[in-house]
Amino acid sequence: VFTTLMAATYKATKPAIDASAEAEKLKLVGEVLPATLYDNALLADYVDIAPRAELGLAAQDAPVRLLRARQAGAPAALVFEAVAPDGYGGRIRLILAVGADNRLIGVRVVSHKETPGLGDYIDPKKDRNKAAPWIRQFDANGFEEVPVANWKVKKDGGRFDARAGATISARAVTNATRQALQFAVDHRDKLYALPAQSRLEKEAP
């Protein structure tokens, strides 16, 4: 009787749980990609990417799920996660949206262990500058606007600002963002063309 009751409860509540999980995923995506830029079922149009160094992943890491946004059937954006492995406090997980024009639409920090009050300004929720959060300087930039050689913090001779005393965090995010953008640009056509719910394997050297 107990097993039957539990099964019935699970069956009754599963749609609500699934809907809640989907809403949370779309909320995270919405941080980097406005809903007005796509009209497809975003969470169903995805490709899994085998772990690769360009995304800051080691061979033992899980695959990355890349979502493909489309507007009236045409490519609109790629949304995926990447990792900055060299943050001051360890790994910094990012989510990025790269438009079909090869420009970053947005990038946000998903999780980090950077020093509170010092390096955690990489997260706009912790950044004291609410009018112009540090991470927004990447928005609308691609390699035409900022050449690859300049995709570094200013302390390293690049284009992007970093806060005094906490350059390591900014450097890690900037470098990881550059590599992730380069990956999206290099594989753009293949990523949009692959069948939905397929997998992009790492090419053999």
Describe this structure in words.
This protein has 205 residues and is an alpha+beta fold. Helix content is 27%, strand content 23%. The protein has 3 helices and 6 strands, in the order αβββββααβ. It has a 6-stranded mixed β-sheet with strand order 5-4-3-2-1-6. The chain is globular and about 45 Å long.
What proportion strand? 15-25%
List the quaternary state of the chains: single chain
Question: What shape does the CA trace take?
Answer: globular
**End-to-end Cα distance:** 58 Å
Q: Strands of the largest sheet, in order across it?
A: 5-4-3-2-1-6
Order of helices and strands: HEEEEEHHE
Biggest sheet record: 6 strands, mixed
Question: How many helices does DSSP assign?
Answer: 3
Helix coverage percent? 25-40%
Which regions contain 5 or more consecutive residues with pLDDT less than 50? none
Mean pLDDT: 89
Number of strands: 6
- Radius of gyration equals 19 Å
**What class would the helix/strand composition place it in?**
alpha+beta
